[in-house]
Amino acid sequence: MPATLGTVGRAAEIPFSAASAVRALPVLDVGCGVNKYPGSIGLDRNPNTRADVIADIDQIPLPFRSSSFRQIRAVHVIEHVSDVIRTMEEFHRLLVPGGRLLVITPHYTDFSSFCDPTHRWHLNSFSLRYFGEDNGGFGYYSAERFREISVQVSLLRLWRYLGFELLVNGSRWFRRFWEYYLCYVIRGKAIEWQLEALKEG
Fold first, then answer.
1. Exposure string (b/e) for 77-94, b if CB count within 10 Å is 16 or more?
2. How confident is the model at residue 13 (pLDDT cuts 50, 70, 90)?
3. Is 99 exposed, middle or buried (0-12, 13-18, 19+ CB in 10 A)?
4. Are 50 and 40 in contact (CB under 8 A)?
5. Contact predicate 96/67, CB 8 Å
6. Per-residue model confidence as pLDDT tens digits over 33-57
7. Who wins on pLDDT, 177 or 21?
8. Which residue ranges form the domains of the chain, and what is each CATH number?
């Protein structure tokens, strides 16, 4: 019985045994800290965490073979790295074709984005578009590609209660309008990307 797995630009038929092998691959929790995702391999540079592997994400390549993971979780990590593009390329290398990448980071209008002195980058909900089809003509920064599955922005509690979060996430056009004209008043809290690695199997 065949199963499908996303590949470059389309779904491809692959044998059931291969799909099972992909499902058996582990999840990598990058910058896991003390709250490692259940069942994952935790990576952190701090030995006083629940990490299984002690490594600095800025020391690329990380100590794993290519296509080793079905999912990578980078929760409040990307804002700390020295090079966002190289880090995204390394995540791409580590994922199997069709593997999923979860990235969560503060929105640049949130207080937490600038109050933490270890934050190097202050991102908005379009900051990772360089790796997709809608790259605004800047796709030459990297040859690696991800498909955007979803982008969700959380807003500060007041704006969430007033329904603005639904508006921002309900339409890509409105989210862009909000980023351009409204976000310094109706401030963001965090951004969550779900991305799929596009690569040849």
1. bbbbbeebeebbbbbbbb
2. low
3. buried
4. no
5. yes
6. 999 999 999 999 999 999 999 999 9
7. 177
8. 3-153+191-198 (3.40.50.150)
Contact criterion met (CB below 8 Å) for 160 and 116: no
* 150: number of Cβ within 10 Å: 9
**String of DSSP letters for 94-145:** HEEEEEEEEEEEEBTTSHHHHH-TT----B-TTTTGGGSS--TT-GGG-S-E
pTM for the model stands at 0.87
Tokens of 142: 């990297």
> Which ranges of the chain would DSSP assign to H, the alpha helix?
16-24, 84-94, 111-115, 157-161, 164-170, 172-177
Tell me the backbone φ, ψ of residue 16, rounded to 5 degrees: -60, -40
Output the average pLDDT for the chain: 90
- CA–CA dist 113, 35 (Å, integer): 21
CA distance 107 to 165: 13
Residue 27 has pLDDT above 70, yes or no: yes
CA distance 84 to 182: 26
Tell me how far apart the 2 most distant CA atoms of the chain are, in Å.
53
